[in-house]
Amino acid sequence: MKITIEDDLRELIPGFLDNRRKDCAAIATMVEERDFESIRRLGHNMKGTGTSYGFETITDIGRNLENSAQAGSPDSIKALVAELKDYLNNIQIEFKS
Amino acid sequence: VNKETNIVSNGPLAGPLHILFVDDSADNQILMNLYFRDTSFDVDYATSGPEAIAMFSQKKYDLILMDVEMPMMDGYTATRKIRALSKERLEKLIILAYTANTGTTAIQESLAAGCDGHLSKPLRKQELMATIGHLFEAEKYHDPK
The complex's ipTM? Predict the structure, then answer.
């Protein structure tokens, strides 16, 4: 899956994606603890930042995570974390100036 | 006036624009730091409502970009407190809510709290700079890119 991102953002991308990988691990723990409010907040943050960094899919997953956390739906949250992990593992980034 | 380093004279400001960006998200702070890096704006960052209030009590700002959803104190509460301080000090201040919640209710709430307007996340650099330019009548801001 190829993503094209503006070159201005190049230096920020590794850190941003690392943070999303940390989110995946954190959410897995939060689901076990039924800490839906923390999951909702992480989803809200992804929703608000993904597209700004060039990752519209992360905004979409964040929005769905926020909704699933509000609904208290662990299965849906786990599926979204799997989707996010898959996305992070398979994206190929091209930078354009 | 040096148009490359200062907000120009036909706006209400004589010197550099002082901006306070309030957001608990490290990702957003990092992004804003990049957006503002090549401008002449004087930008400070706060990670919570109480920190923003403390910073505002020590310094005059022209513009505050206020995240709405933060732990400890939400952006609406922080806006009300800062707005009260700015009125006491008889200072001009523009506060823009900066939020991923874009519904009509969220916008009405931000206006009721004392915000002057609303910026939606995700936010592109061009949109942010255009908004600032419009608000402060800046003919040009320093951005070599």
Answer: 0.83
